[in-house]
Amino acid sequence: MLGSVLFGGASANAALSSSMCDFAVFVGVRGTGAPAGSNLVHNGRVWTNGGLGDQVAPIRSALINVPDMPFYFLSLAYPATAALSPSIEDGRLKLIAELNYINQTCPYAPIILAGHSQGAQVISKVLTGAATSPLGAPFNLTPAAKANIRAVVLYGDPFYESGKLTNYPNRPKNGLLSTIPYTQKNSLATYNYLGWPAGSNSQQTVYKVREFCNIGDFFCQSNPGDSSYAIHNSYAQYANSVAGWITYELTDPI
User: Fold this and answer.
1) pTM here?
2) Any bridge partners for residue 51, and if so which?
3) Separation in Å, CA 160 to CA 1, 181, 251
4) How is 137-202 classified by DSSP, letter by letter?
5) Are 252 and 172 in contact (CB under 8 A)?
6) Could you tell me what percent of the chain has a pLDDT over 70?
7) Is 125 within 8 Å of 224 (Cβ atoms)?
8) DSSP state, 34?
9) Taking burial as the number of CB atoms within 10 A of a residue's CB, which of 35, 92, 106, 143 is the most buried?
10) What are the DSSP E strand ranges found in the chain?
């Protein structure tokens, strides 16, 4: 395990990976209206430049500074438009296909996911439910791809459900687009392992998903007072602590 991780400046050994199979793969999913990326790869599913959005991109910046951990960064090339249903469905299908492809191509590479707002909705849909391909056939994560997911960060998800084990920390209200009986998020807790949480001297269940929801967030706390989305768009502040957690997850043996 890592004794400490510093993010103040880049180490001489800090680097971006030029190969997807070098170490770990980070896939970011931007929120509604965030700018697209560039350099489409993998049959048009992901970009290798940009496309993370201003809430997820700071996590990338922090991880670049982690010594001797060459992350490979991708962003999901989905619409991220206000037409939520088709946009989320497009993202869901592409993300499932991409995660299965990453695992098939690099079976030993751990996968990191991070999404904001609609991007968090896309990730939630992939992790909690089955998708259907355009031809109508079942289309899901393979067991191997699911097992290789090592850390998931969700920011300001409109599907947020209070009281879930993966909430970090828990907030009292449900999200604007959450639905009764508020059980959609239950299966996020199945992404876990028996390990040593940071600061603990005993083994216990460690959850691979951390769902962040700011108090007063328009979408994840159904707060009309945040009509300017100032609170909803203030998750970049967690980038360094999130990067530290991701790094710990990659060094805590499963």
Assistant:
1) 0.92
2) none
3) 31, 12, 29
4) -EE---HHHHHHEEEEEEES-TT--TT-TTBSS--SS--TT--TT--TTGGGGGSEEEE--TT-SS
5) no
6) 91
7) no
8) P
9) 92
10) 24-29, 37-41, 46-50, 71-76, 111-116, 131-132, 138-139, 149-155, 192-195, 204-207, 209-212
